[in-house]
Write a structure and sequence with these properties.
15 strands, about 25% helix, 6-stranded mixed β-sheet, about 260 residues, globular
């Protein structure tokens, strides 16, 4: 399975519509890939909080339409990153979209863990409640977004639901890039799964982005890593390696759940 991660430079001088057109063209060019992955909130920038409300779209808005058409034109599975979704009956959501090679919506995932510590995204957007997996011919994807990476129980839930490839879109800041790499490898090792983590380049609302999108195999080996700027990271994966790893080193079978709480002495 060939995966292409498109690490987009979210330039503050580029309009949302111009960026949408540019990214659509980039996706359309990935005809040799089976799966294409985009970053989190690439239309606005993950830290451009003041733009969330003004640039929010309905689920089937302009980004949805552009990405559905691009997936169909390229004939690829497309994790289209996430958009600020405006729910007519509720709050805004940070919503990731996954399209099939025919351009049909295969899944929508509303980000569960919102970043900001009582400000920013944490107060401007609602929290999702549902884990999301997507069955591809070669593998089953588990979908997560940015800050989710810090919460291993979410990924355990995805693995329990059948995920073999964990796909994460992000707008991760440069000042915490060491955590990005460390956590991506940790999620791969502990879940014996591929991790495909696609971030942004550039600067969002004055916050420099980490870039360094990364692909990690089930043993924790980094198969490919981007640099700091805009880049398309393409890597060939062997989906059978997940089952082989879990058979060779069956740590997941040794999980003990439902333990008694600690005694207070």
């Amino acid at each position: 399975m060939r995966a292409s991660l498109i690490q987009i430079d979210v330039n503050e001088g580029e309009s949302v519509e111009s960026r949408r057109q540019r990214v659509t063209a980039l996706v359309r060019e990935q005809t040799d890939a089976d799966l294409v992955v985009l970053p989190e909130l690439w239309t606005t920038g993950a830290f451009a909080y003041e733009e969330f409300a003004t640039e929010a779209e309905p689920l089937e808005g302009p980004t949805y339409e552009a990405m559905a058409k691009a997936a169909s034109d390229a004939g690829v599975w497309l994790h289209a990153g996430s958009i600020p979704e405006r729910d007519p009956e509720g709050p805004l959501y940070n919503t990731a979209l996954v399209f099939s090679p025919s351009g049909e919506l295969a899944a929508a995932y509303r980000k569960i863990h919102r970043f900001g510590f009582d400000k920013g995204e944490a107060v401007l957007m609602g929290a999702g409640r549902e884990l999301v997996t997507v069955r591809l011919p070669e593998t089953t994807l588990g979908v997560a977004t940015c800050y989710d990476l810090r919460f291993p129980e979410l990924f355990r839930g995805l693995v329990d639901a059948g995920a073999e490839t964990l796909v994460l879109s992000a707008g991760w800041p440069e000042r915490r890039r060491a955590h990005w790499t460390l956590l991506a490898q940790a999620r791969a090792v502990e879940n014996q799964a591929f991790v495909l983590a696609c971030g942004t380049a550039g600067t969002h609302a004055g916050v420099p982005q980490a870039g360094h999108s990364i692909v990690v195999d089930p043993w924790g080996e980094v198969l490919a890593e981007a640099g700091a700027g805009e880049e398309i990271l393409t890597v060939d994966l062997d989906p059978a390696k997940v089952a082989a790893t879990r058979e060779q080193f069956p740590a997941l079978k040794d999980r003990l759940l439902g333990l008694d709480p600690p005694r207070h002495r």
